[in-house]
């Protein structure tokens, strides 16, 4: 079975920079990070030691903040921000 570190989408440094770029409060950043790992609301709640309604409140606030409708759009938004940042820095991974 994969460990959490094997399922990371971004490196620690990339995620730290992206979190700062998106101005995510710590708990919302934790929720997004879990979401990027493909976790359900219930899994996120268990992992972050919070209730499922609290996870959903964080998600609703994130949806409103970034003008997205659902978790899929939120994930796409996060990736888009990352790609824009990479493009602006001339990252070789972005062509």
In brief, what are we looking at here?
This protein has helices at residues 12-22, 26-36, 41-48, 52-66, 71-89.
Structural features, described:
The structure is a single chain. This protein is an all-alpha fold and 95 residues long. The protein has one domain: Winged helix-like DNA-binding domain superfamily/Winged helix DNA-binding domain (Arc Repressor Mutant, subunit A, Orthogonal Bundle). The protein is 67% helix and 0% strand. The protein contains 5 helices and no strands. The protein has helices at 12-22, 26-36, 41-48, 52-66, 71-89. The radius of gyration is 14 Å and the shape is globular.
Structural key phrases:
5 helices, Arc Repressor Mutant, subunit A, mainly alpha, 0% strand, 95 residues
Instruction: Give the total of domains.
Output: 1
Straight-line distance between termini: 33 Å
Shape verdict: globular
Low-confidence stretches: none
Largest sheet: none
Q: Could you give the count of β-strands?
A: 0
Proportion of beta-strand residues: under 5%
Percentage of residues in helical conformation:
55-70%
Top CATH class: Mainly Alpha
Q: How large is the count of helical segments?
A: 5
The whole-angstrom Rg is 14 Å
Secondary-structure content class: mainly alpha
Query: Can you tell me the CATH architecture?
Result: Orthogonal Bundle
State the CATH topology: Arc Repressor Mutant, subunit A
Average of the residue pLDDT scores: 87
